[in-house]
Every structure is written in C-alpha cells, then in structure tokens.
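User: If only I could read backbone structure tokens as easily as an amino acid sequence. Those tokens are not coordinates but codes from a learned vocabulary of shapes. Could you go through the record with me and say what the backbone is doing? Here is the record:
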Amino acid sequence: MRMPKMFEWSIQAEEGASRAGEFNTPHGVLNTPVFAPVGTQATVKSLTPAQLRELGATLVLSNTYHLFLRPGDELVAQMGGLHAFMQWHGPMLTDSGGFQVFSLADTRKIDPDGVTFKSHIDGSMKRLTPESSIVIQENLGADIIMAFDECADPLNHDYSKEAMDRTHLWAKRCLDAKKREDQALFGIVQGGIFEDLRTESAQVISSLGFPGHAIGGLSVGESKADMYRTIEVVNAVLPKDKPRYLMGVGTPEDLIEGVLRGVDIFDCVLPTRLARHNTAMTNFGRLNLMNAAFARDEQPIDPACGCYTCRTFTRAYLRHLIIAREMLAATLLSIHNLFTLVELARNLRSAILAGRLNAFADEALAKLGIARIPEVHP
C-alpha cells in the first residue's frame, strides 16, 4: 500500500465545482470538505480537546496574533509546540495574524515592510512583518500556516488594490522566510469583491507554488451574493489540484454554498460565539434558548441531532442553565453548534461521494428556509 506524501492532496469525487478530497498532514489525513472549530487562544472556548474529538472535529484553528501577545510563541515552542501545549493531537492550522492586526484600524500603521500596532492587552507597541509572522507560526508548530496578508475594506476598490499588491509582495517574502518542512504554507487571495482584482490575485498567488490556497477578506460586510460570486471568480482561477480554504466563514448556508463552489476547508468563531449568547444553530434555523417558550420544553435542541447535548438534555434544562448563568450552558451549546457544522461538512462530503450534492444542498437549504443562490458559472 502506497503511503501518501506529506501535504499530498487527492480528490476522491467531484460534482460540478465541488470536491471530496484528502489532505495529508503530519498529524493525520484531513477528509474534506471540513469545518474547523476556532481555538483562538489555544483553546476552543468552553470545550476540552476530548470533547472536540467526541463531537467529530478533525481540524482546529488557532490564532497567531493572540498567541504572539500572550503567552508568547517562544514559550509555546519551549512547551513542545501548540499540539503539546493545548493537547490537541490532530491536524491544526494557524492564521498569520493579518486579519486581527488590520482590524485594529485606529491603533496600527502599515508600511511596505509590515505593520506596527498597539497591543489590545497592555497598550505596548508591537510589530509584525511577513518574516516575523512565519517565525511565530514555526514556533507554534501547526500543520498548516498562513502567509501574512492585508485584509482591506471589500467595497473600496482603490484600497483593495493597494492591499492586494502588498499581500502579493508579502506572500513571496513568507515563502522565502519559511524554514520548516513539516508545515504547509498557504497563500491568501485578496481583492475585495472586485472581479478584476480577485482574478489577478488568484493568478499571482497560484503562480507562487503554495501547497494550498486561501480566500481571505470575505464575510466582512459584503452581501451573501457578492461573497458567493467572489468565491466563484477565485476558484475558477485557483488550480484544482490543491486544497482551497475559505477563511472565517461558517454559517450552515455558507458551508453549503461554498462547497457547491469548490471550497474544501472552513473555519469560524460563530458557533461558539452564538453559544455564549444562548443561541443554538440547527438544520432548521437558530433557536434563542432564553425564550420563555422553552421553559417546559422536553425536546432536545434538535430531535434529529446526534450530539451529546441533544442525546442527553432538554431545551428546558438548557434554558434553566442560561437563566441561572451556569457555565455549563455555553459548553453544551458549543458542543451542539460545532457538531452541527462538523456534521454538515461530513454530510456534504458524503453527498459528493454519492453523486447527489445538488439534491442534498437543495434539501438542506429548504430546511433552513433559505433560497439557494444560483452559481454565476454553474
């Protein structure tokens, strides 16, 4: 039996633009499409690694910017790297810190070499460059790391062009700075919602030889239709023989529409954020469990869901925990919300393998009460 090469990407089935694939990493094979829970500060909020494994997570994302500031990437390296530090032994991804830095609009200064910004923790001045972002990510030790990019206002063409050009230069510098061979560095496509910029960016980034590519700068204020159209524009250019990662996007409808357009990897903070705000994601929409209507409801959140929360607890109990401000509420809702997206990605994969993705997508969107947005180039 042939052993797969590190970071080898293979496609098992296709339907339209969608793919069911496998990506080989040092910590296991990723079956795609896949949804990654976000562990910003080396923890998925309110959950243990064992709980993540039980709900079926196979990939976890952590955050370069936050771990650089606290506890420091060198400390993480001394502790054996991020896998050992947080005791997650499956595949892991770290972002470059670019999105977080550029969201600090009032406290950062961009120059051709990098970004100087004020720490949100203690107000001290810090600096990130393409080279230092790679050093930090190599210290953290994730399987997949990201090139340092500039995320611009997606509706501003001039700024999107300026940020895209800088992203391309920084991508080359990240490749030059990378030393570890046991990490896959993905390049990031930018360019707002503008077809000319996105096409150019996808051409440039795909020409640089990255083992995978990411689509950045979406789900930051543009319409759903513009986001999906932009994904199509980019994926029409990106090579088919490498995985595609849509950064920071994670509603059920986004996973469905993204997979239909050829996306393989997703991540988002939304499932755990909603859980901390008493909201359950389901295959038929969202439920605010603070609602008094659930006070005596003996049903689980979703009777069709197989997660630990739905197998074990009632809506009435969950509402009691919320009203009593018990920490367990966030844990149980996070388990359910993450399971919902992890399982959806798994079902999308199964549908591709079975040759019935379009039918599955139509059924899933109908349950959500959401109209399917037709592909511009089906």
Q: What stands out?
A: The radius of gyration is 20 Å. Residues 200 and 320 are 53 Å apart (CA to CA). The chain has a mean pLDDT of 96.
